[in-house]
Amino acid sequence: MTGRLKAALAVIAVLIVAILAIGSFVLWPVISPSTPDLAVPGGSAPGAVVEATAKTDLPILMQISRAKGTVVEYMSTDPTGRPVQVSGVGFEPGGDAPEGGWPVVALAHGTVGIDDACAPSRSAELGGLIGIAQALVGAGYAVAVPDYQGLGSPGEHPYLDSPTAGRNVIDSIRAVRTVFGNVSNRWAGYGGSQGGGAIWAANEESARYAPELSPVGTVDAAPAADVVGLVAKARAGTLTSDQRAAMQLIIEAAARIDPAFVRDDYRTATAAAEWDVLSACSGPLVSRRDAAIAALGPGDVGPRSDAAAARLTELLRSYALPRMKASAPMLVLYGDADTFIDPEWTRDAVRRSCALGSVVESSDQPGKGHGDVDISSALGWLKDRFDGKPAPSNC
């Protein structure tokens, strides 16, 4: 073996050792993850932490950065004003927190179903929000992801009850601050669809419900702010296929909570035959759900009488937004081709919020539907709010 070859092999050996050493250093948090210290003081006040366990299925980039995760049970407030236990997930970035603690972003999920098994905290994907959560943690934000009442926790889920879900959002922020201990009181929020209504409601409620917190702004994408119009469309037989699916979940959720909501007052025999399939979010029935939705006719789901229509209208009005001036600026993004939430319903909710004195920038996106709304401006908009820049408004 020549001296030159020996020297080359020595260099290669050194490089291999260096690469292995660097790789081991980078991947050590994955190979040997640390167990975070999680505060669980208990109590019954809104936001009080009842139980917290380490979330061990973090995405690899979170693991490498030493981010912390928790599945948390905490207290909130139900539609009647009574304490209720709910669940969710929280994340804290790795490293040293900035002065005042990590700013926190609440992520409010869209429709996942109405059963316990549907709860985002039950899956590694968090109901489709894990990618956004990872990006926010990487940008230096703590993150709170509530399941909402009745998803993953005792009791029934009041589907599309934005005020209740909004309190669940606020209390998830309180819980994350308690569990990790180094999270700021400054918060922002993002939510889409059902979560758009939840995060809008959390914005409105924050100043009254949680005066110790300091909201800087929320992004509401295709928000389910006011869907009272579903009742008139159901009576007229003009619900879209997507709206029939949403109506079925509204009726089933209401019937589970209130015996006055008799399912047969809101469905035909055709719908009743596939009702369990239409309600499913997990298990073998899920594979049949899309076909069952497609098979629903224009009049198969909705009130069968004036009395049933009045009862459902009253319920949806109790869910509707706005209810008060927003506590912080809002960016409302929606499409003019939305087949779940008619765009005029969102436009009207924005107009009413503006009339109450809210600071709102709304973007009515041509050709966009419900799930393809362009949210690329959301992270930059939220950063500007945390940076204290004046919020634009086109009220």
TrEMBL record:
<feature type="transmembrane region" description="Helical">
    <location>
        <begin position="7"/>
        <end position="31"/>
    </location>
</feature>
<protein>
    <submittedName>
        <fullName>Lipase</fullName>
    </submittedName>
</protein>
<dbReference type="InterPro" id="IPR029058">
    <property type="entry name" value="AB_hydrolase_fold"/>
</dbReference>
<keyword id="KW-0812">Transmembrane</keyword>
<keyword id="KW-1133">Transmembrane helix</keyword>
<dbReference type="Pfam" id="PF03583">
    <property type="entry name" value="LIP"/>
</dbReference>
<keyword id="KW-0472">Membrane</keyword>
<dbReference type="InterPro" id="IPR005152">
    <property type="entry name" value="Lipase_secreted"/>
</dbReference>
